[in-house]
Write a structure and sequence with these properties.
alpha+beta; 8-stranded mixed β-sheet; elongated
């Protein structure tokens, strides 16, 4: 620590360079820590399971346009044909698909009356084979049976008597009850229309990946009598890509009064839905890498300038008995002090930026362990960056260093 005094006096004589590097370190820490936190949050969002057998599932739209188009007959014939195909595990008509960005939502209440707030849920209309087609796990209660299924008219405003909900929905509606105890309870839709919960599934995402309650969903036992319908089709492993064009052609030929379009895999839907998140991650990684390199280059530049400026001082110290280790330690300690000042400022800026992001962009608060992580990275970066110039300074022979330059 005997070098601390000379280091502080030297820093005061060259305040501009030290201040610039400290500010650069502070800004770098602020951006890097928050960027890494955002990257981690986005990765966690993108890794969430949809609940479907994504690798083997696809969907398509059937749009009727003919004057004599009969949606009920068409749906029944399509499902019979699809379910009979070799390689198809199951198929259903549904109004929405997880992660697709388009669907229905409703509010469920535990008490009737418009004065009570509802819990928002995504709505999936399926038949008795919906659980198998979606490959979701029933963890309590029972599945739908054929008697539960109804046909929904376009103008319908009422709902079936029974529903199946996800675990997350059950916890939101009845936080004090065990999952098994939720089965049989009554909830209310449209303020005062009672519905009985007959089953609970483990997980099924809503169509909207940016929704904060993405795992809150309900299954309603009905098929729609709309001219436009979606078919969700699950295949045997490895059969999806072969069956997709075959099914598209089969459905198109079976009814000339409609068109088949939007043939899409769940994997492609996931990629499309999270494309902005993926792009943000790539941009932030580039920013982090660029800032790291720029900061390291700044430290190397300042250290090299300092070494050249102090050649005579270094030579004098070497002539007075200072070892190479002493010179190396001097510059490493000097950098550590500058880095520490920058990191201290960076801590305040990091927390400040996170507060701005939380208040204005609905982001999560920064986890505490990102701060020591950022500090350690910046300290290590500073020590590695100064190592080269410090080693060159330590290698200057006393006889050369004491010459006039």
């Amino acid at each position: 620590m005997r070098d601390l005094g000379p280091i502080l006096r030297a820093m005061l004589r060259n305040k501009t360079g030290a201040i610039l590097i400290a500010i650069q370190i502070a800004v770098t820490m602020t951006i890097i820590v928050n960027a890494v936190f955002i990257i981690q949050q986005r990765n966690e969002l993108m890794a969430r399971e949809s609940g479907l057998d994504e690798a083997n599932t696809f969907y398509l739209s059937s749009v009727g346009f003919a004057d004599d188009f009969n949606p009920q007959n068409t749906t029944q014939e399509d499902l019979l044909a699809l379910r009979a195909l070799p390689g198809v595990v199951d198929a259903i008509q549904t109004n929405a698909v997880p992660m697709s960005g388009s669907g229905w939502s409703m509010g469920l209440q535990t008490q009737p009356g418009e004065e009570f707030d509802g819990t928002g849920v995504a709505v999936y209309m399926v038949d008795e084979q919906g659980l198998n087609a979606m490959d979701v796990q029933l963890i309590a209660g029972r599945n739908f049976n054929q008697q539960d299924i109804r046909w929904r008219e376009p103008s319908a405003s009422t709902w079936p008597d029974v529903i199946i909900i996800t675990r997350d929905t059950a916890s939101a509606l009845f936080p004090e009850s065990a999952i098994q105890e939720v089965v049989g309870k009554t909830v209310y839709i449209n303020d005062d229309e009672p519905i009985n919960i007959i089953g609970i599934i483990d997980k099924l995402q809503a169509p909207w990946v940016g929704w904060g309650s993405v795992e809150r969903a309900m299954l309603s036992p009905e098929r729609t009598l709309f001219n436009s319908a979606n078919y969700l089709i699950r295949t045997e492993p490895g059969q999806r890509d072969m069956l997709m064009p075959k099914i598209e052609e089969m459905l198109a030929k079976s009814n000339k009064g409609r068109i088949i379009r939007d043939l899409t895999t769940i994997e492609d839907t996931r990629e499309r839905s999270y494309r902005r998140h993926s792009a943000m991650i790539k941009i932030l990684l580039i920013v982090v890498l660029t800032l790291t390199l720029v900061t390291a280059a700044g430290i190397v530049g300042l250290s090299s300038f300092t070494v050249n400026k102090r050649r005579k001082q270094i030579g004098t110290r070497r002539a007075l008995g200072a070892t190479r280790g002493d010179i190396l330690r001097y510059f490493m300690l000097e950098n550590l002090l500058i880095s520490s000042i920058g990191i201290a400022l960076g801590l305040l800026l990091t927390l400040g930026l996170n507060m701005v992001l939380v208040n204005n962009f609905e982001m999560q608060r920064l986890d505490w362990y990102y701060l020591p992580f950022g500090m350690a990275v910046l300290w290590l970066l500073g020590q590695l960056a100064v190592l080269g110039p410090a080693s060159r300074a330590a290698a200057i022979p006393p006889a050369v260093a004491t010459r006039s330059v």
